[in-house]
């Protein structure tokens, strides 16, 4: 459960913005999306490798985006 410390004089918009940032940093939504469907460990590992290769190509300048 997320708890936001709010001052009495603080605007509700600021408190809501703090809550949204804290919620995003807790990665709760990402966990829910991952749990919706099962991905095999081999598939997950393969996607990580492909992403790493893509990042390396961009960093080395071979692939222009």
Automatic annotation (TrEMBL):
Any one GO biological process: translation
Name of the protein in its database record: Small ribosomal subunit protein bS21
The family this protein is said to belong to: Belongs to the bacterial ribosomal protein bS21 family.
Pfam family, one: Ribosomal_S21
Keywords assigned: Ribonucleoprotein, Ribosomal protein
GO molecular function: structural constituent of ribosome
InterPro entries: Ribosomal_bS21 (IPR001911), Ribosomal_bS21_sf (IPR038380)
